[in-house]
Amino acid sequence: MNRVRLIIFNAALGPLDYRVPDGMTVEPGSVVVAPLGPRQIVGIVWEEDRLPAQSVPDAKLRPLLGVLPVPPLRPQLRRLIEWTAEYYCAPMAAVARMVLSSGGALKGPSTVTEYRLSGGMPERMTPRREQAIAALEGEQATMRELAGMADVSEAVLRGLLQQGVLEPVQVDCDRPYPRASASFAPPDLSADQQGVADRFIAAMEEDRFAPFLLDGVTGSGKTETYFEAVAHALDHGRQVLVLLPEIALTEAFLRRFEERFGVAPIVWHSAQKSTERRRAWRAIAAGDAQVVVGARSALFLPYARLGLIVVDEAHEISFKQDDGVRYNARDVAVMRARFEKIVVVLASATPALESLQMAESGIYTRLVLPGRYGGATLPSIATVNLTEEKPERGRWLAPTLVKALFARMERGEQSLLFLNRRGYAPLTLCRHCGYRFKCPNCSAWLVEHRLSQRLACHHCGHETKPPPACPDCGEGDCMVACGPGVERIADEVAEILPDARVVVATSDTLNTPEKAAEFVAQAEAGEIDVIVGTQLVTKGFHFPELTLVGVVDADLSLEGGDLRAAERTYQQVAQVAGRAGRGAKPGEVLIQTRHPDAPVIAALAAGDRDAFYSAETEARRHAGAPPFGRWAAIIISSEDENEAREAANRIGATRPSLPDVAILGPAPAPLSLLRGRYRYRLLMNARRSAEVQQVIRDWLGALNFPQGVRVSVDIDPYSF
Ligand code: ADP
Ligand code: ZN
């Protein structure tokens, strides 16, 4: 009797046992198709003794239906799946799914049919056909993706195919990628850089788990040093994963990689076409993909011979996934390296306190690049006290900052104004009745975007045209903007400096790789005088003419009331400040604030990073916050408010009483309505030693909830 235990891709069900029919061979890690009721489902064969036993007798087992033609998942990856599920209190199935995230792609053949416009015209034009033809210019993708891009049904496209307006193209997903070469254009490293690179390489040669914290100010040459480790991996036929935040802005990075290694790396992110993902997935699993640069989900891909992981800008909060499996890619990257017995590099100019603490306690090796590469100086930083020096009414830039902008214009240098608020204004009112434009699906205001003439919710993506009249009192021409967004600051700059070429740089305006690349090219060529941007522009750029950075409102991120607010403010301001003076000319940074004496602002102005970190360390220690204590959140949501509240209360009423764990709530979550779901939350604060996950599993495992209620656990949460 050949019995196997599977993780099946249904998060509601645990492992299930099946029979291996005669003539079929499977091993742990094999990806198989199995019957589930009347349906077929994908599963992964697992070591039987690592999963709970099943009581179904041999005679009742159903046979597996088939084995998918992909390499079995390696034990290192299976251990990572187990660890991630355990640590983040997530179903194994949900984690395993991320590994096979190209889902259907796996089942398909290596050749895929895509479609593109042939240049012909249909016999009969309809509005939808016209819309499709206009939208699909230059595109090539599957029917389904084209339908999404053109916002028409697939039936419309099939009509166009029949008429020869669309033509099929066969794409081979197994065609090889061009090869990167370690020796294409090696740099001359400085002595400091060489010292760091040597440490990486020595650890790689020992084939052991070695976590490094690469700590160096912006522009210190961190990228060049870990590129040496990449080169070493290439020379030894090992694969490399580089995790980056904000995938939209990797354009500059890709170019730099290509200059060093001769070809662009393989890119992995969720917005890619399914065909590209399939091709990448197959090459990664086969061991043919050399270097993958990706967003956090690239961490769970089935690399055949991973030899190095780099997490660049490792402090970035976008490494934390905030729905589904709520994992932190920075931490999972370290675990993956541990299971693979390889080197992992966390690179940052402003490391998270948690990472510094890991170095302090000897778990990570901290390597420091002390100054900017080539002797470029760090910018001078000063605060502008907004309580003393007020901008004019209805304006947001104080005289000192305005003067500095003028000076840059006169000298033909560039300025960057940073404000982490997309759109024109964060809140819009009716001038007659005071009605606030609010998202119907979320407890959040709609944000006016003048460039695209939309009111948008930044949480669920809901968008409407600005209405001609107030929905409440019916008066026309009613909207007034409250507070500043980047678009409004750009307007203000245009008024102050009518000749300036001003560009708004946000995820709205740079929403494709092409637009991002165009922006970078313009900025580098000095064709932009003032950039007004969100945190999208705080990293990765190197604009030699940029000599002034103005932080429009440093208090914004401080006022969130969350326990990481100070750290986040420090990181954001330090990162954006790092954009100034990267060329030959020195940079200046002006921080507008109403709290120049707040410890984080004072530390920024004094350029005293240690002062900030030691104050923050003390505050965290005092609060029992990470890294000294642990936090976890339990979030309960339902489309029915009463149902959500009752479920939250029931969880609250059955809370365990433990000496080393404090449990707060339930209370409405900060976004108490999100995408149409009402949300409540309990917060746990525990000693480091507490078995938080076990406590949560025992507690929640004993409860049952109505169908519509979702209970999710957030270990080490970021947003409070
Ligand atoms: P970081 O990643 O620490 O912000 P970078 O690696 O981007 O720093 O380096 C900053 C700048 O210095 C970049 O323009 C980079 O090309 C340049 N640079 C760094 N190291 C070298 C080197 N060894 N030789 C030539 N240029 C270098
Ligand atoms: Zn919304």
Automatic annotation (TrEMBL):
Reaction(s) catalysed (UniProt annotation): ATP + H2O = ADP + phosphate + H(+); Couples ATP hydrolysis with the unwinding of duplex DNA by translocating in the 3'-5' direction
Function: Initiates the restart of stalled replication forks, which reloads the replicative helicase on sites other than the origin of replication. Recognizes and binds to abandoned replication forks and remodels them to uncover a helicase loading site. Promotes assembly of the primosome at these replication forks.
A cellular-component GO term for this protein: primosome complex
GO annotation (BP), single: DNA recombination
Entry protein name: Replication restart protein PriA
Top-level taxonomic group: Bacteria
Entry-linked InterPro entries: DEAD/DEAH_box_helicase_dom (IPR011545), DNA/RNA_helicase_DEAH_CS (IPR002464), Helicase_ATP-bd (IPR014001), Helicase_C-like (IPR001650), P-loop_NTPase (IPR027417), PriA (IPR005259), PriA_3primeBD (IPR041222), PriA_3primeBD_sf (IPR042115)
Class of this enzyme: isomerase
Annotated residues for binding of Zn(2+) 2: C439, C442, C457, C460
GO terms, molecular function: 3'-5' DNA helicase activity; ATP binding; DNA binding; hydrolase activity; zinc ion binding
UniProtKB keywords: ATP-binding, DNA replication, DNA-binding, Helicase, Hydrolase, Isomerase, Metal-binding, Nucleotide-binding, Primosome, Zinc
A Pfam entry, by short name: Zn_ribbon_PriA
UniProt cofactor(s): Zn(2+)
Chain residues that bind Zn(2+) 1: C430, C433, C470, C473
Quaternary structure annotation from Swiss-Prot or TrEMBL: Component of the replication restart primosome.
Residues covered by the Helicase ATP-binding domain: 203-369
Enzyme Commission number(s) of this protein: 5.6.2.4
Family membership: Belongs to the helicase family. PriA subfamily.
Comment on bound cofactor: Binds 2 zinc ions per subunit.
